[in-house]
Specification:
Beta-Lactamase; Phosphatase 2c, domain 1; 6-stranded antiparallel β-sheet; 6-stranded mixed β-sheet
Length: 607
């Protein structure tokens, strides 16, 4: 049935009241007083123009945001007391998941969730379904009137409630008793439908000496529901778009941070509430050879799917370059070229740092990104004065690196501008606010992403944000690191062999001495021949890996050569390639580094 009217008498009394009012001259006065903007419309006793004004105000009071919960609350709030003494709004679970909603079939009973409840002070003891509770009406033996409204997609009207109607309106026995006790006498339910799809329902009741609902109220409530349903559907579509962008964004970010020697990294990403604010922020943490760790944060200008796609491409390029152990300044220069090759003509800011556990230092380079925040163990916070290069894609290179020691027990905080951005303050005020907030924050809360949840003076964070908190510490028991400066004379090879052999004996890895001596001899020989002499030798034992690294001042990176049977040389790197798990090289500001890595037999080291 489209309209269910129970005990709808009283029409003669109302007509008599109107005639008496007309004779006494009070009818016109009543219309004028209640036709003021925002005044509650008294149903069929109100002029058509006044009802239109009331509905027009509804379209400005409902749907002020693109949030489903807020829109439902605004619908309930606008209905009370203008239309009803109490109102409740339920939305379909499928709508809250961003799905299309339900087609009305007359058979299925959709599952809903209570989203908003509003009442006058006299009805505060009513017991509707609690906000947030899932309402599954399929479990009730009795057919609720709200269920009929949802099943058929048609409004339901009960002008005067009978004892049986209370059972078909109240969700529980206690709620039924509360309705009787507080004098609820009239009920109205309307579906929330947009584009022919059912989104939910709205329930209204009247109590006390207020006149019952009639067909004019039903028409008014249906029009109000149509207006609200459009806003609810817009919020659903907007939320679905946001979820798609956020899902893409999260899929392009690291799932977890790797274990790195001497460094603990806590990474946090917070999407924007606004779907158009999501898309361009990223971070990455990469374990490099010889125990170093690369950290990068970036922010693509623009938002939405195009920014997310650009971010994914830049992160892939950055990760590849970091895996090649390229220094931060050279990495940003390569990223600038890659950004200029993109068809989207977008630019991005980026901050790259490499942590070295040997001296607890960070080598940092910036491409127009906000400076990192260095926090001492005592809570003192200050910004690192990294030379700010041009953003990626601007074509202004090179970038200047800065080397800074990490404080013992302190933190280095990387972030994107969404963490500090406001609509009113300039950048200096924003950065100072972040510094003060971090300085007062306990280290545990900082590691847990406290700056992302700290209260703001303005209207809150409206852009997505990335937070990366890095803290250096002593090397764990499973990691050993030694470094030596080799002499530049001709005996540097024998010195290097002796140093690594003695160190492996202390680590009870004598079985690896033969291969390690060969690797060291080859690296030193190449440094003497092509690199201007050997520099610093590093030996790193990290769990089940042993890495040997040698620095020199030569600009050319070594490559495996094709050696004939009669050639006396050219086989050193071939042997390293066969005997070691992996090897590689990278350029530095003063030359290059060549490294090789071996597997450590299980139980082979005493640490």
């Amino acid at each position: 049935m489209e309209v269910s009217t129970v005990n709808g008498g009283g029409g003669r009394a109302r007509r008599l009241t109107r005639r008496l009012a007309a004779k006494s001259g009070t009818s016109r006065q009543l219309r004028v007083r209640r036709s003021e903007p925002g005044a509650p419309p008294p149903g069929d006793r109100f002029t058509t123009a006044a009802r239109m004004r009331w509905l027009n105000e509804a379209s400005t009071s409902i749907g002020t945001t693109l949030d489903l919960e807020r829109t439902a609350e605004e619908l309930a709030a606008y209905s009370v007391p203008g239309l009803a003494d109490a109102a409740a709004v339920d939305l379909l679970e499928s709508v809250l998941r961003g799905e299309e909603g339900e087609r009305v079939t007359g058979a299925a009973v959709p599952v809903t969730r209570a989203m908003a409840v509003r009442s006058i002070a006299a009805l505060e003891e009513l017991e509707p379904s609690p906000v947030g509770q899932v309402v599954d009406r399929r479990e009730r033996r009795e057919t609720l009137l709200t269920t009929e409204c949802l099943r058929n997609g048609r409004p339901v009207l009960v002008s005067r409630m009978t004892p049986q109607d209370y059972k078909r309106v109240a969700p529980t026995d206690s709620a039924e008793a509360a309705m009787r006790r507080q004098g609820v006498h009239s009920y109205l339910a309307v579906p929330l439908t947009a584009r022919g799809v059912l989104l939910g329902s709205a329930d209204f009741v009247r109590a006390g000496d207020r006149r019952p609902f009639n067909r004019a109220d039903l028409e008014l409530a249906s029009q109000l529901a149509s207006i609200a349903a459009v806003f609810i559907d817009n919020a659903r579509l907007y939320g679905r778009e946001r979820e798609h962008v956020v899902s893409l964004q999260r899929s392009l970010l690291p799932r977890a941070t790797p274990r790195t020697p001497g460094l603990t990294v806590h990474a946090h990403y917070a999407p924007a509430v606004d779907a158009h604010g999501v898309g361009g922020d990223w971070y990455d943490v990469v374990a490099l050879p010889s125990g170093r760790t690369a950290l990068v944060v970036g922010d693509v200008t623009g938002h939405g799917l195009p920014a997310a796609a650009t971010m994914g491409r830049l992160r892939a390029v950055a990760r590849t370059l970091m895996m090649l152990d390229i220094t931060p300044d050279r990495l940003l220069a390569r990223l600038d070229l890659a950004t200029r090759d993109l068809e989207d003509d977008q630019v991005a800011t980026c901050l790259c740092a490499v942590y070295d556990p040997a001296d607890s230092s960070y080598t940092i380079a910036s491409a127009g990104h906000p400076p990192p925040l260095l926090v001492d163990a005592d809570g003192t916070a200050r910004y690192v004065d990294v030379p700010a290069g041009a953003p990626l894609g601007a074509g202004v290179i090179p970038y200047d690196p800065l080397r800074v020691r990490g404080p013992a027990g302190g933190r280095l905080v990387f972030y994107t501008d969404g963490l500090v951005k406001t609509r009113t303050d300039d950048v200096d005020v924003q950065l100072e606010g972040l510094r003060d907030s971090v300085a007062r924050m306990a280290p545990e809360r900082l590691d847990a992403g406290g700056p992302l949840t700290s209260p703001r003076r303005d209207d809150g964070r409206f852009d997505e944000a990335v937070l990366l908190v890095a803290g250096g510490h002593e090397l764990p028991p499973g990691v050993r690191l030694r470094e030596w400066d080799l002499p530049s004379e001709g005996n540097s090879a024998s010195t290097a062999r002796r140093l690594v052999t003695e160190q492996l004996a202390r680590w009870e890895l004598a079985d690896l001495a033969d291969v390690t001596e060969l690797v060291v001899s080859e690296l030193v020989g190449n440094a003497l021949r092509y690199g201007g002499g050997p520099g610093r030798l590093r030996l790193l034992l990290c769990d089940d890996r042993l890495q040997v690294e040698l620095a020199d001042t030569g600009p050319d990176l070594p490559q495996i050569q094709h050696a004939d049977v009669s050639d006396e040389g050219g086989r050193g790197l071939q042997l390293i390639n066969l005997l070691c798990r992996s090897w590689g090289s990278c350029r530095t500001a003063t030359g290059k580094i060549v490294w090789a890595e071996q597997d450590v037999p299980r139980g082979g080291a005493a640490l």
